[in-house]
Design goal:
The complex is a heterodimer of chains A (113) and B (115). Chain A has 113 residues and is mostly beta strands. Chain A has no helices and eleven strands. The model of chain A has no long low-confidence stretch (mean pLDDT 93). In chain B, the strands form three sheets. In chain B, strands 2, 5, 6, 10, 11 and 12 form a six-stranded mixed sheet that branches. Chain B has a four-stranded antiparallel sheet with strand order 3-9-8-7, with no helix packed on it. Classes of the chains: A mainly beta (113), B mainly beta (115).
Chain lengths: 113, 115
């Protein structure tokens, strides 16, 4: 089955530690995205990548980093510089183009203790 | 710049009643519009989208939406609510192509369905 996988589903980390969230897709999509979701705030774009080895900052990139070494993979690192990292993180992918929708993974809930 | 406004954070309807979830957008160019649904602790699933052509768009699970350019609206409707429709609904807009192509989401509306 084609789709997007995110692992793990739940993640706990101590304050001050960096943590990497995994996102893998087998849909052969060029574009991939990372969003952060907080209650009542909708989805906010962290980073996105339209092609391998290239990515752009979204609206809330501070304290986060990404890489795009393979078409299938777009890992997100939440660094210790992120002031309030506890949130639900969603990864998405799409075919490039205005009319094409994004497909979403199941999400990772990160809790920083 | 593009933006989306979803009025109200919570809508409650009785089972069998009409569902109306409002979405207004702001865009200086013709928009592409999307509605997504999210069940608790899950990712988002596309309900329907408007790109070009017919302004009344039908989606999955009996939902539909109408693009009204004069009102800058894309409201989501369903004639008869079902208990399984209880979820959070997001409207989103996309206007730019190429390297800047990205979706802008509204804050979402939680739909509750009363028995």
């Amino acid at each position: 089955d084609g789709g997007i996988t995110q692992s793990p589903k739940y993640l706990f980390r101590k304050e001050g530690q960096n943590v990497t969230l995994s996102c893998e897709q087998n849909l052969n999509h060029d574009a991939m995205y990372w969003y952060r979701q907080d209650p009542g705030q909708g989805l906010r774009l962290i980073y996105y990548s339209q092609i391998v080895n290239d990515f752009q900052k979204g609206d809330i990139a501070e304290g986060y980093s990404v890489s795009r070494e393979k078409k299938e993979s777009f890992p997100l690192t939440v660094t210790s510089a992120q002031k309030n990292p506890t949130a639900f993180y969603l990864c998405a992918s799409s075919i490039r183009g205005l009319a094409n929708e994004q497909f979403f993974g199941p999400g990772t809930r990160l809790t920083v203790l | 710049a593009q933006s989306v406004t979803q009025l109200g954070s919570h809508v409650s309807v009785s089972e069998g009643a009409l569902v109306l979830l409002r979405c207004n957008y702001s865009s200086s160019v013709p928009p592409y519009l999307f509605w997504y649904v999210q069940y608790p602790n899950q990712g988002l699933q596309l309900l329907l989208k408007y790109t070009t052509g017919a302004t009344l768009v039908k989606g999955i699970n009996g939902f539909e939406a109408e693009f009204k350019k004069s009102e800058t609206s894309f409201h989501l409707t369903k004639p008869s609510a079902h208990m399984s429709d209880a979820a959070e609904y997001f409207c989103a807009v996309k206007t730019e192509a190429g390297a800047n192509s990205k979706l802008t989401f509204g804050k979402g509306i939680t739909l509750s369905v009363r028995p």
